[in-house]
From TrEMBL:
It comes from the Bacteria. This is Glycosyl transferase. Keywords: Transferase. Residues 198-239 form the Galactosyltransferase C-terminal domain. One of its GO terms (molecular function) is transferase activity. It comes from Gordonia lacunae. Residues 32-150 form the Glycosyltransferase 2-like domain.
């Protein structure tokens, strides 16, 4: 696996290897700071004042305040002479931070987007540190470092001085949520994120390229209450080929305690509401412990019906669905007729092709041709081969037999290759090999066999 250079000088890194990116972008990017806001005039004043003191060049910085229908629209007149600042507003229809961030991003023009909450005050180096990776490696989704303090008595005209006084705390993990500190330490600042790294991407201190944000589709506006929208975005971005990174030198101060430390009434019911909203959209097995099935499966299985009889097809489908969170799409001219003949009533069996929502959120895509018969754990073994840090695609070797084929690819590999194939001089297969690697396994290693054309179904 190797780094691939794009035609504009930026870099596509293999797997999640953000550590292979150089120290600084070749040009200074235009950065758009997007700030969702709702009735927070004092907190917003602190953030805006802190943005005037950034080490990132002021002429390469724009600020968009995305107001979520505040009672009184935010007054930013005190900063218009020092910041390129715009206010956009949406109607108050409840908590819609996800939609507000999308609104702010749409009104901005920077090549790098830096999302900061209106209660999160950046230190002077924050922007410069937070955008280094996205400016050079456009797949990077970067989370900064967040400390907590009571800023209610800090005046806007003294916030820069207050930030300077806190520099003594920067080397330590004082005032930081322990669960985040532990996670970044365990994953080497998300260099090895595993499948659950999305849980450590906090939208209050998140940065990415506009290329990535637009390709992923932004935040999901269906989230209309506090919490969950950053996990959903981060997970979807990872499935679509994002590179996760934690930048500890991009430090901001959040006004107030971490959620886990707040005396919030009905905490369990609030977290349950968040979990119920996320489980249909995040296929991580940890999100789906009840054993129920959702419209979006973890594994998309595309089964060609060419050459199948109804009897051979039912064996292939049954094996693909057994014991895993999967759904099968039957593809081919005979798909509808064969499904009708099977007469099954199983929502996991469909015809046609998966929709965009499914392909942007599932972890794996399996392509099957021929009368393949899977064992109980064949797909579990194959999908383990394309986990983060492993490879991007695995092909099953049937000893040269042309009557069957099985390939398994991670969604993140498929999407990253799709996003950049036209921007390199490499073919899609070569690009996938360079960025993620490919493997072959013998069918006997994963207990897959080629069945007969007309197996016996009688009992």
């Amino acid at each position: 696996m190797t780094v691939v250079e794009l035609d504009d000088g930026r870099t596509v890194v293999p797997d999640n290897r953000w550590d292979l990116v150089g120290d600084a972008p070749t040009t200074t990017p235009l950065v758009s700071v997007v700030i969702p806001h709702y009735n927070q005039p004092h907190q917003l004043a602190l953030v805006l004042e802190a943005l005037t003191a950034q080490t990132h060049p002021r002429d390469r910085l724009e600020v968009v305040v995305a107001d979520d229908g505040s009672t009184c629209p935010p007054d930013v007149s005190a900063w218009t002479s020092r910041l390129d600042i715009t206010v956009v507003t949406q109607e108050d229809k409840g908590f819609r931070a996800a939609a507000a961030r999308n609104l702010g991003a749409a009104a901005s023009s920077g090549s790098v987007l830096c999302f900061l909450d209106a209660d999160t005050v950046p230190t002077p180096d924050y922007i410069r540190r937070a955008v280094r990776l996205p400016a050079t490696a456009p797949d990077a989704l970067v989370v900064g470092r967040r400390k907590h303090a009571d800023l209610s008595r800090v005046a806007p005209d003294s916030v820069v001085e207050w930030l300077s006084e806190q520099r003594r705390l920067h080397p330590s993990h004082d005032c930081e949520p322990g669960w985040l500190v532990d996670a970044y330490d365990r994953t080497s600042d998300l260099l090895t994120p595993g499948w659950d790294g999305y849980k450590y991407l906090i939208s209050a201190v998140m940065s990415c390229s506009r290329d990535l944000f637009d390709d992923v589709g932004g935040f999901d506006p269906s989230f209309i209450r506090y919490g969950g929208e950053d996990w959903e975005l981060a997970n979807r971005a990872f499935m679509m080929g994002a590179v996760f990174a934690h930048e500890p030198d991009a430090l901001a101060w959040h006004d107030g305690p971490d959620w886990a430390e707040r005396p919030v009434p009905e905490r369990i019911s609030e977290k349950n509401a968040e979990a119920l909203a996320l489980a249909p959209l995040i296929t991580d097995p940890a999100a789906r412990t009840a054993g129920l099935r959702y419209s979006i499966p973890d594994i998309v299985v595309l089964v060609s019906t060419d050459g199948h009889t109804a009897a051979s097809l039912i064996h292939t489908i049954a094996g693909a669905l057994r014991g895993v969170d999967a759904a099968v799409w039957l593809v081919g001219e005979t798909a509808d007729a064969l499904l009708l003949r099977l007469a099954v009533h199983d929502s996991r069996i469909r015809t046609g092709t998966p929709d965009t929502s499914t392909l942007s959120r599932c972890r794996f895509v399996v392509e099957v041709t021929g009368p393949v018969v899977f064992s109980d754990d064949s797909l579990a073994r194959l999908t383990a081969e394309v986990a983060p840090g492993e490879c991007g695609r695995v092909t099953v070797d049937f000893d040269g037999s042309p009557s069957a084929s099985v390939t398994v690819a991670s969604s993140r590999a498929r999407h990253r290759v799709r996003r950049w194939a036209a921007r390199t001089d490499l073919g899609a297969d070569e690009l996938l090999g360079r960025l993620f690697g490919v493997r072959r396994v013998r069918h006997s290693e994963v207990e897959i066999v080629v069945g007969v054309h007309e197996p016996a179904l009688s009992w």
